[in-house]
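Thread title: Can someone regenerate the structure for this chain?

I was given the following input by a collaborator and told the matching structure tokens would be attached. They weren't. Posting the sequence so someone can regenerate them.
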Amino acid sequence: PASPAAEAYRRRRVNLSAERELPLHTLLVVAADSDGDKDSVAANLAVTYARVGKQVILADCDLRRPRVHQLFGRDRSVGTSNILVANCTLDEAIQQTDIPNVDMIASGPVPPNPSELLGSKHMMEMLVELRGRYERIIIDSPPISAVTDAVILSKIVDGVVLVIRAHQTNREVIRYAITQLRNVSAHIFGAVLNGVDMGRDSYYYYQYYYYYYGQDGERKKKTRSRRSLRSRRYYGKDAEK
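Best answer:
Regenerated them for you:
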């Protein structure tokens, strides 16, 4: 909870909630391409909302390469695809996680027609029922550059967060993803630049965070050389103080 990564997700939560005329109840997390690691972003956003007391559900709607169940150590044999073909109820598909206030729906078996299922009336009905139970609904979907699933889902949620992998996602792929979303009038709330190697800047960010939020509750005024702090950040004794 005191790590720079956790603080970054808290900032995302605040940014998504502030200065927004549109409501935020259902949020679609989608990668521009397959390198985005969007399922981890979706899971961490769910946890971050839960930490402030929101009742959150994370629904795995990536019916092609599902992974959310692995992140939480759960089974995916019953989930979204079962609901959408009407062979199980929502209650039968919802699973609790080990994190308070966070429930999840796994993908279920991989179907032969994911796009058709996600665009069906059963998907709308599932979201309507979830809205009555949870304060935040976070949906994980396939990358937008590969298939139409994310575009279909973007039309029935309050907003979209686009996940971009630093130094890997091609700019043309990003432009294509944004164009696809805008073509259906999706509300793009913003983007997460993931997998950034901060390099030199990470030293300054860590030093700032350590200075103001030392675990012993005191402000740290002792300075160290850049190399010393970086080398002992994770492995040295100072990392535990």
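Residues 4-17 form the longest helix (14 residues).
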